[in-house]
Amino acid sequence: TEGWPVAVRMLVALPESERAHALTTAMGEYVFEEVVDTLPDEIRRFLLKVAHLDSFSSALAAAVCDEESAYETVEWLVERQLCTVADVGGSRSWVRLHPLLQTALRSRAELDDSIDVGLHQRRAARWFHEQGATEEALRAAVAGKDGDIVAATVSDVLVDNALEQRAFSCARWLTVLDPAHVVGDRRAFAVTVCIAAVWAREDVRDKWVRARIRHGDGDGDLVLVFVRAFDALRGGRATESVELFQEVINGAADYASDFAPDLVPLVMGFSFASSVEARMYQGTLRHDDPTFAEALALVRSFAPGVAAWIHAWWALVAYVDGATELASTMAEEHYHLRRKGETDRVTTRDNSVVGALTSARRTNDPIRLRRIADEMEEVVAIHDRLGGSTGGALARLLAAAIYRKSGDLAAAKRHQEHADRLILTFPDAPFLSRFAESIDGILRSDAPGDLLALLTDKEREVLTHLATDRSTKQIARDLFVSPNTVRNHISSIYRKLGVKTRHQAVLRVGVDNLSLPENG
């Protein structure tokens, strides 16, 4: 509603379950009838033609409507403050329609046989393309099914996003793009399939790979070798993956330099980083292996976002090897590179495997640990969308360890069992077992001393009394405090140990580790 008082008042009067529907039906129709139907016919038709634009300038509107009068129409609307809102920073050069009005206009335009929505979207795509606004051109071309503009823009958009590590943007594009629009353009087709191999959801990836098999370069298609390398990496076939990535690295320049030079750094960057990951799963890397530095030197200049991956694998190998200072340094580099590159996802220190591991090492607070575990749930979900994989097993092993340290044993068991099932399907990924053993040592809180360290001195004193049959009032009397104070301590103890009863709390730390009070 953007604060429109009448709309807000009407929505508040409705049950919450009916508000979304009201916004797109009754509210929009009300706005349409009260505003649009009172305008001159030529203004109303203009609004129907530009309704599918998120924002527009006079020049764009003129191109979409194929009418020079659009310049005067936009000025007329802006001067009277009708229908349009300044798009950015209060500027009058670009405007947009109020959301409620735009929704109603779009619905009407779809039903109006005299309005060719697809034609207007294609005109917008071509205008954006001429202006060099590549991503906007692609967006309009996809909506208008303009295969020529899709093929002309998709490579630039995906390569730029990929080298900056904008995985979610790439995945969204690959979901809405139609392979039929790019199979005729060798460069666009190669770029889309390569990036689909890395980041597309499993079903979307299959769509692109099937198209490549039908319409690709036949025998010796390096794009399909790249796809197989990632399939092997996800499937825990580490040695096979290393060999395939090396084949891609050796052949990329000769394969793509003539028709897609921008594909070479993209494929080389991903292949170098992913071959490091594959060797990590293979168990052949140690933290002092020169491969890490060599790979970073190769990709940092043209793909700083991809370099973040290498820092992550280096950090994980260092943790497993016990080189915690190096691991922390690499984890920090990983975080800063992600912050610089990932603009389509909020980057925190905890929403990556290496970041969560670093943070979980540094705290024993159950509430903080569960927040870190919540961040890991997002990482797990990402890998689940890509299909069961080595990365998913790694994320679940860490989530299980963090939940165990926080005291949430049910969640720890759920992730551990899922990870174990995945690992059973991997024929060649021994690093995962080393990783599981290592993080159990790094994050272990099952030892009674570690668990007791979570408690304050007063909470430990209260816990010793919980091991007896004393009531809350008796404990309060023995400790010279109020019963409410004892209850507060008990609540904190239960929360920190992840239990619900005094019996569970005592079992969690072991009665032999408590100094029971006299007559206990």
Please sum up the structure shown.
With 520 residues, this protein is an all-alpha fold. The protein is 71% helix and 1% strand. It is flat and about 90 Å long.
List keywords for this structure.
single chain; 520 residues; mainly alpha; two-stranded antiparallel ribbon; 29 helices; 71% helix
Topology diagram in text:
Elements: H1 5-12, H2 16-24, H3 26-34, H4 41-50, H5 58-65, H6 70-79, E1 84-86, E2 95-97, H7 99-111, H8 117-131, H9 134-144, H10 147-163, H11 167-176, H12 186-199, H13 202-215, H14 222-234, H15 238-256, H16 263-282, H17 290-299, H18 304-321, H19 324-341, H20 353-361, H21 366-386, H22 390-406, H23 409-424, H24 431-443, H25 448-453, H26 457-466, H27 472-479, H28 483-497, H29 502-509
Antiparallel strand pairs: 1-2
- The mean pLDDT is 88
Largest sheet: 2 strands, antiparallel
Instruction: Report low-confidence residues grouped into runs of 5 or more.
Output: none
N-to-C CA distance: 65 Å
Structural features, described:
With 520 residues, the protein is an all-alpha fold. It is built from 29 helices and two strands. A two-stranded antiparallel sheet has the order 1-2. A hairpin with an 8-residue loop joins strand 1 (84-86) and strand 2 (95-97). The longest helix is centred in the last third of the chain and has 21 residues, at 366-386.
